[in-house]
Design brief:
Shape of chain B: globular
Radius of gyration of chain B: 13 Å
Oligomer: heterodimer
Number of strands of chain B: 11
Largest sheet of chain B: 7 strands, mixed
Distance between the termini of chain B: 35 Å
Number of strands of chain A: 11
Largest sheet of chain A: 6 strands, mixed
Structural class of chain B: mainly beta
Strand content of chain B: over 45%
Structural class of chain A: mainly beta
Radius of gyration of chain A: 13 Å
Helix content of chain A: under 10%
Strand content of chain A: over 45%
Chain lengths: 109, 111
Amino acid sequence: SQQGEEDPQALSIQEGENATMNCSYKTSINNLQWYRQNSGRGLVHLILIRSNEREKHSGRLRVTLDTSKKSSSLLITASRAADTASYFCATDAGNMLTFGGGTRLMVKP
Amino acid sequence: DGGITQSPKYLFRKEGQNVTLSCEQNLNHDAMYWYRQDPGQGLRLIYYSQIVNDFQKGDIAEGYSVSREKKESFPLTVTSAQKNPTAFYLCASSIRRDTQYFGPGTRLTVL
């Protein structure tokens, strides 16, 4: 069962531009997490936002959560070529994490 | 050097063979997980263990088996009953469900 669905599936931008990725989910959650995966590597945790939080920042990352719409967004500001990766949202609904299909971000230098 | 390791990085299996993927962590985490990732897709949970000597099936456990005899180790066996095992396998661990720490993955190919 895939709880989270990312949108868009792929995104291509120029270096310096902002990148926005969205995640929608179906059931109530305890928290929502964003992970990054470079090609052929493991996932790296980026940020966690709890169900009672609406916005969270970490460096160039900004995450929002709207529990009424069951959606979250990840904004990467001033993107760099090194930000090229796949980004996954994962929802914790009480038992285990459920990952979405990911957004593949390409940042062109 | 704390972390989670997986071996081997690449693994080739012949039809009908069982293979075992290794996952070791020295983070003192209670929970460990195995995921399968197909090309261009997200992660699907195979098995997870929240404590030593206990594990639970995930969404796609058929054709796989695990053991959790030590806190540090959570090996995954891909059996001959798994008809389409070619995939990228990721192991993770966590203290609680909050944040998972992932290994570098094992790419399994059936010849």
